[in-house]
């Protein structure tokens, strides 16, 4: 795939800032604000660690949420019903190597590498690649599609995936 060349530098900086703001919302556990970053037709996916490139139609997914399911996930994580996350884990996200892969009318296809450190009794690291489809929304963006492909062979040492990666 080719990267976007026309006004690419300013656009990439705007995308980077958006992704950094998203990471801050998640690290600060401001999940209701994070939810507002999504379009009404949004999807959020985390494929299984053995089929990173698989999709809901042909592979087991750890997470395959529509917007209403993302809303339910946020509601549960904000309540005491998410026993694995009460009290909340401490997380720190590092997002880098942000690239705009393509531009189709008002939609950008974006990729970035990430590491999410989660501290709860011990420190775990989740690393991988994000894939986004972002749409223009005023002077910022909205997330139409978010996918976190983990570069882990197994989640055994991490336990369940109870945080948003």
Summary of the model, kept short:
The chain has 165 residues and is of the alpha+beta class.
Detailed description of the structure:
This protein has 3 helices and 6 strands; from the N terminus they run ααββαββββ. The chain has helices at 8-27, 31-35, 67-77, and strands spanning 38-47, 61-66, 90-104, 107-120, 122-137, 140-150. It starts with 7 loop residues before the first helix and ends in a 15-residue tail after the last strand. The relative contact order is 0.21.
List keywords for this structure.
globular; 3 helices; 165 residues; 22% helix; single chain; 6-stranded mixed β-sheet; disordered N terminus; alpha+beta
Mean pLDDT: 86
| Terminus-to-terminus distance | 25 Å
The topology string of helices and strands comes to HHEEHEEEE
Number of helices: 3
Rg computed from alpha carbons, rounded to a whole number of angstroms: 16 Å
Structural class: alpha+beta
**Percent in strands:** 35-45%
Q: Poorly predicted ranges (pLDDT <50, ≥5 residues)?
A: 1-6
Task: Give the % helix.
Answer: 10-25%
Biggest β-sheet: strands ordered side by side in the sheet: 2-1-6-5-4-3
Number of strands: 6
Largest sheet: 6 strands, mixed
Shape designation:
globular
């Amino acid at each position: 795939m080719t990267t976007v060349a026309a006004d690419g530098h300013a656009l990439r900086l705007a995308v980077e800032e958006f992704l950094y703001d998203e990471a801050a919302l998640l690290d600060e556990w401001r999940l209701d604000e994070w939810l507002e970053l999504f379009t009404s037709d949004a999807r959020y996916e985390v494929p299984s660690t053995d089929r990173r490139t698989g999709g809901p139609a042909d592979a087991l997914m750890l997470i395959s949420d529509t917007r209403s399911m993302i809303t339910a996930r946020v509601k549960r994580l904000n309540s005491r019903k998410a026993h694995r996350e009460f009290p909340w884990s401490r997380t720190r996200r590092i997002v880098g190597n942000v690239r705009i892969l393509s531009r189709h009318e008002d939609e950008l296809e974006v990729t970035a590498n990430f590491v999410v450190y989660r501290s709860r009794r011990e420190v775990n690291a989740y690393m991988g690649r994000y894939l986004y489809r972002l749409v223009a929304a005023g002077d910022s963006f909205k997330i139409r599609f978010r996918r976190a492909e983990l570069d882990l062979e197994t989640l055994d040492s991490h336990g369940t995936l109870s945080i948003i990666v």
